[in-house]
């Protein structure tokens, strides 16, 4: 079997095209475009690329974008004061603080920052109020990546209701909201993590596997029931040739790309899974573009709600 491609670029383009008239209508009515502020702390190269892509995509879609940068040596107080300023700003509808924060900021820094963002501007749905609303299935703003996975599944015709879904990973930003969103769409959900015994056997019972771990090629074909749908959320930059050669066949495009750039962003799903799965999302071109599309959609939604307009 060769798995059907779950084309994240095509689905993200659909979502962007659908949002375009609403962005134009908001701009005409409010006299300003919906505005997204992104805060980037430190010089993590992967984060810098993600932020650049988000800003470009939002700008192309007609949103106002503002980037606030802080050095890796910045204090948590400096970061919190930027968040407070953006919370008070009339023109900013969405605030995204790029994760991860530098380790030097302290183990609890991310939680303190997410707690500080105005829930009405919390476009990644990480404020406890929005997480609570998500648990009760009444969230307006839900985390972009798992929301993007749902869009990818639904718009690709994958049946969620009644399916057994296994989510591998239990982070606040991906795994947990992913499990809740699948549950609200009537999947039977199992959440796996680093302490789950017999993980391959558990995953192999699933109709839908979502891998959000951050370990290149971790999900091998023995994790996958023939015909199952597999969504690969993982994006790990790999510089080690041996790791890349273990995953990709000699002469493959991915190996060529590594030879050119000396680095490759690799998913959590081993390429061989394509021979077993019924449908598979690629890395790149799977979940990544949807995370960005949902960020635009959430910024528009936050702007509409803040302006008292009916969300479209
Ligand atoms: P995270 O906070 O590091 O969480 C990783 C999760 O994976 C944890 O729950 C961990 O379990 C679990 N895990 C790690 N090793 C495991 C193992 N050997 N067996 C089973 N479970 C294991 O990561 P995250 O923020 O959720 O991100 C996960 C991946 O998604 C990363 O590659 C990240 O770059 C990517 N990502 C992509 C996008 C996108 O737009 N495409 C967006 C966000 C994240 P424990 O809880 O037991 O430690």
How would you characterize the overall build of this protein?
- The chain is an alpha/beta fold.
- It is built from eleven helices and eleven strands.
- The protein has helices at residues 8-30, 45-60, 76-88, 109-116, 128-135, 144-155, 175-184, 199-203, 241-247, 253-261, 287-306; strands at 4-5, 35-41, 64-70, 94-97, 164-168, 188-192, 208-211, 229-232, 236-238, 264-266, 279-280.
- Helix 7 (175-184) links the parallel strand 5 and strand 6 (188-192).
- The termini are far apart.
- The chain binds NADP nicotinamide-adenine-dinucleotide phosphate.
- Residues 145, 168-171, 173-175, 192-195, 199, 212-215, 233-236, 287-288, 291 line the site of NADP nicotinamide-adenine-dinucleotide phosphate (NAP).
Q: List the bound ligands.
A: NADP nicotinamide-adenine-dinucleotide phosphate
Query: Helix/strand-derived class?
Result: alpha/beta
SSE sequence, one letter per element: EHEHEHEHHHEHEHEEEHHEEH
Strand order of the largest sheet: 1-11-8-7-5-6
Fraction in beta strands = 5-15%
Please work out how many helical segments DSSP would assign. Answer: 11
Helix content, binned percent: 40-55%
Radius of gyration equals 19 Å
| Spatial shape | globular
- The strand count comes to 11
The low-confidence runs, each spanning 5 or more residues with pLDDT under 50, are none
| Mean of pLDDT | 96
Main sheet makeup? 6 strands, parallel
> What distance separates the N and C termini?
40 Å
């Amino acid at each position: 079997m060769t798995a059907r491609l779950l084309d994240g670029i095509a689905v993200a383009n659909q979502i962007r095209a659908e949002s375009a008239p609403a962005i134009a209508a908001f701009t005409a009515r409010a006299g300003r475009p919906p505005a997204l502020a992104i805060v980037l702390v430190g010089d993590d190269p992967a984060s810098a690329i993600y932020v650049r892509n988000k800003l470009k995509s939002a700008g192309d879609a007609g949103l106002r974008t503002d980037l606030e940068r802080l050095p890796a040596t910045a204090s948590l107080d400096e970061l919190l004061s930027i968040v407070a300023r953006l919370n008070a700003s009339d023109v900013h509808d969405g605030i995204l603080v790029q994760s991860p924060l530098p380790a030097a900021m302290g183990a609890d820094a991310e939680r303190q920052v997410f707690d500080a963002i105005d829930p009405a501007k919390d476009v990644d749905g990480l404020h406890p109020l929005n997480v609570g609303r998500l648990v009760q299935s009444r969230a307006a703003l839900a985390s972009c990546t798992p929301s993007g996975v749902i869009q990818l599944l639904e718009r690709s015709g994958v049946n969620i209701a009644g399916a057994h879904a296994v989510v591998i990973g239990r982070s606040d930003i991906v795994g947990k909201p992913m499990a809740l969103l699948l549950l609200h769409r009537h999947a039977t959900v199992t959440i796996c993590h680093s302490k789950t015994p017999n993980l391959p056997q558990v995953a192999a019972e699933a109709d839908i596997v979502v891998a959000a771990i951050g370990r290149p090629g971790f999900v091998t074909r023995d994790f996958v029931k023939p015909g199952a749908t597999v969504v690969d959320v993982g994006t790990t930059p790999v510089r080690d040739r041996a790791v890349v050669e273990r995953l990709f066949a000699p002469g493959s495009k991915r190996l060529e790309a590594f030879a050119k750039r000396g680095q490759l962003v690799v998913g959590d799903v081993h390429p061989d899974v394509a021979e077993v799965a019924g449908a598979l999302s690629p890395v790149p071109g799977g979940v990544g573009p949807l995370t960005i599309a949902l960020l635009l959609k959430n910024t528009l939604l936050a702007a509409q709600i803040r302006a008292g307009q009916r969300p479209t």
